[in-house]
Design a protein that fits this description.
The N and C termini lie far apart (about 115 Å). The protein has one helix at about 10-45, and strands spanning about 65-70, 80, 85-95, 100-105, 110-115, 120, 135-140, 145, 150, 175-185, 185-190, 195. The chain is elongated and about 110 Å long. The strands form 3 sheets. Strands 2, 5, 6, 10, 11 and 12 form a 6-stranded mixed sheet that branches. Strands 1, 3, 8 and 9 form a 4-stranded antiparallel sheet that branches. Strands 4-7 form a two-stranded antiparallel sheet. The protein has 2 domains: about 1-50; about 60-195, Immunoglobulins (Immunoglobulin-like, Sandwich). By secondary structure, it is of the alpha+beta class.
C-alpha cells in the first residue's frame, strides 16, 4: 500500500530554483550562440577597420586627396587665356584620429588630364631630368598638406614625353573643357577639377 508524504515547501522551492537555473542557462547558451553566429557573419561582409596607430603608415581610407588648378601662386583659376599655362597641385589630408606617415614624393604622385573620354595628358609620360624620389610626410589629423605647383604646357603626352621640349602637339583651345585628377601613393583625388582653355 502506497504512502503519500507531504513534500516540505523548502524542497519544492529548491526544485523550482534548480529548474529555473537550468532553463536560464539554456536560454543564455542559445543567445550566446546566435550572437556569435551573427558576429561571425557580420565580419565576413563588413570587415572591421584596421586599428590606426600613431606614427604608423597611413591607411588609404584615412587619406583625402584633392586636385587643384590655378596660378603659379596656387590661386584657383577656372579658365586660361591663350599663352597662359594652368598650374597643377594637390593637397592631402589625414582624416584619421592620429598622426600617420604617408609618401607624397614624386615617385608616387601623378596627374592626368582628360577631355570627355579623351585621355589628353599624364605626368607618367614625363621624362624627368631628376630621378623620382620618395618623401614620407608625417600627417597630423585634419591638417592639409599642399604640394608645389607645376605647369601644364597645354600639350598632349605620349610615350615620347609630356612637354613642348618633347615635341608634343598642343591641345585644342577655344573654350575646350578639361578635367584634372591627381594620384598620390595610390589614392585618387576625390574632387572633380574642371577648367577651360580659351
Amino acid at each position: 500500500m502506497s504512502q503519500f508524504h507531504d513534500v516540505p515547501p523548502s524542497v519544492i522551492w529548491t526544485r523550482r530554483v534548480i529548474v529555473l537555473s537550468i532553463f536560464a542557462g539554456l536560454i543564455w547558451g542559445v543567445v550566446a550562440a546566435v550572437s556569435g553566429v551573427v558576429s561571425w557573419a557580420s565580419g565576413l561582409f563588413n570587415p572591421s577597420q584596421p586599428t590606426m596607430v600613431a606614427g604608423a603608415d597611413c591607411q588609404p581610407q584615412q587619406i583625402r586627396v584633392e586636385a587643384h588648378v590655378g596660378t603659379a601662386s596656387k590661386e584657383y583659376q577656372g579658365a586660361f587665356n591663350p599663352g597662359e599655362y594652368p598650374y597643377l597641385w594637390f593637397t592631402v589630408t589625414n582624416t584619421g584620429p592620429v598622426e600617420c606617415k604617408f609618401n607624397v614624393g614624386s615617385s608616387v604622385t601623378y596627374y592626368t588630364i582628360t577631355s570627355g573620354s579623351d585621355n589628353v595628358w599624364s605626368s607618367k609620360d614625363c621624362k624627368l631630368t631628376a630621378a623620382r624620389t620618395d618623401y614620407v610626410a608625417l600627417l597630423q589629423p585634419s591638417v592639409t598638406l599642399a604640394s608645389d605647383p607645376s605647369d601644364w604646357q597645354r600639350v598632349r603626352s605620349s610615350g615620347e614625353g609630356c612637354s613642348i621640349a618633347d615635341n608634343q602637339p598642343e591641345v585644342p583651345a577655344g573654350g575646350a573643357s578639361f578635367v584634372l585628377k591627381a594620384e598620390v601613393n595610390g589614392v585618387i583625388s576625390e574632387n572633380t577639377t574642371q577648367f577651360v582653355l580659351n
